[in-house]
């Protein structure tokens, strides 16, 4: 399915670089033509000879090689590819990409390219979680850079956490998905979708609010993948620090009441995915001024009111009800049982159940494990293994596509 596709592969330094040899082999098996740039760090882990043998092409390493520049200049190298794949993508290379540096052949080709770029990061968990790396990732994704991984698990440094290079089959699937959406008919073209994402903030006074730990990463990823599949997407987002997904109309809200009004304003629609972690309650009487300590140990009493149930409201919207309504069930115990009861109670079509207990790292993290409940019959359920939230979004969009095409 990749016959005739030209891929520029950039291999940077990292112990996981050995996995890229398998990626090359599988891409070549599917007909792709690959040229490779091997950084100085990458050459510490895989040899130019092994990469050349598998790609059946010259391996490029030196920006100032007169021979290489005469045969295949870095501008031409970056422009003749249909996709630039960076695997592994180290923290250093991602930082240079975000800063627009051109200090070697790899960074120069990345800065010079006008083609889509897919990165597969790998690094130590603390490096991945560092604010600088997360800011760099947000910058790159806001510019349209695609990403697969990193995954969680045991790391080469002996620590455990997010930072593993995506497995070869996951990288291959990401490349296949890119070309399938790039070249083929958009499977959800003509469909209108509305997605909710992030937390809601329910004010107590002008400086305090009630919220939860949702980052919005899952909802934003779903909106992006729906748009890539051709849907006309509106993302209704609570307060998050994420960049807006490319090709998506975004409505920013703060409270649950504002989110419901924004969603209703987008109806009728074909698809609704309620991924936001909406606060169940709000303070009934918000203070106009900051609540102050009294000094006598008396704690202000807060009276709560129940927030509107967005998923249930959309699921019972009469003629404006989307033909497919998908909800999320964020649970910490009895995940599947609680999610199945939620589906019956809310009236939605599917529920994606996930465990958000503190030990899972799901809230605010990059990975998710999903149990899709698609009906009253457990035989129709699907269990998706723990994977990146982007991969979860792709799986959901593929499932939505099958639903509309069946």
TrEMBL record:
Gene3D superfamilies per UniProt: CoaB-like, Flavin prenyltransferase-like
InterPro entries reported in the protein's UniProt record: CoaB-like_sf, CoaBC, DNA/pantothenate-metab_flavo_C, Flavin_trans-like, Flavoprotein
Active site: 157 (proton donor)
Cofactor note: Binds 1 FMN per subunit.
Every DNA/pantothenate metabolism flavoprotein C-terminal domain range: 188-401
Keyword line: Decarboxylase, Flavoprotein, FMN, Ligase, Lyase, Magnesium, Metal-binding, Multifunctional enzyme
Cofactor(s) essential for the protein: FMN; Mg(2+)
Region entry Phosphopantothenoylcysteine decarboxylase, spans: 1-192
GO BP, sorted A to Z: coenzyme A biosynthetic process; pantothenate catabolic process
Span of domain Flavoprotein: 5-175
GO cellular component: phosphopantothenoylcysteine decarboxylase complex
Enzyme nomenclature, EC number: 4.1.1.36, 6.3.2.5
Reactions catalysed according to its record: N-[(R)-4-phosphopantothenoyl]-L-cysteine + H(+) = (R)-4'-phosphopantetheine + CO2; (R)-4'-phosphopantothenate + L-cysteine + CTP = N-[(R)-4-phosphopantothenoyl]-L-cysteine + CMP + diphosphate + H(+)
One Pfam family here: DFP
Superkingdom of the source species: Bacteria
UniProt binding sites for CTP: 280, 290, 308-311, 328, 342, 346
Location of region: Phosphopantothenate--cysteine ligase: 193-406
Family designation: In the N-terminal section; belongs to the HFCD (homo-oligomeric flavin containing Cys decarboxylase) superfamily.
Classification via NCBIfam families: coaBC_dfp
PANTHER family assigned to the protein according to its UniProt record, in alphabetical order: HOMO-OLIGOMERIC FLAVIN CONTAINING CYS DECARBOXYLASE FAMILY (PTHR14359), PHOSPHOPANTOTHENOYLCYSTEINE DECARBOXYLASE (PTHR14359:SF6)
Protein name (database record): Coenzyme A biosynthesis bifunctional protein CoaBC
The organism of origin for this protein: Thalassospira mesophila
This protein's encoding gene: coaBC
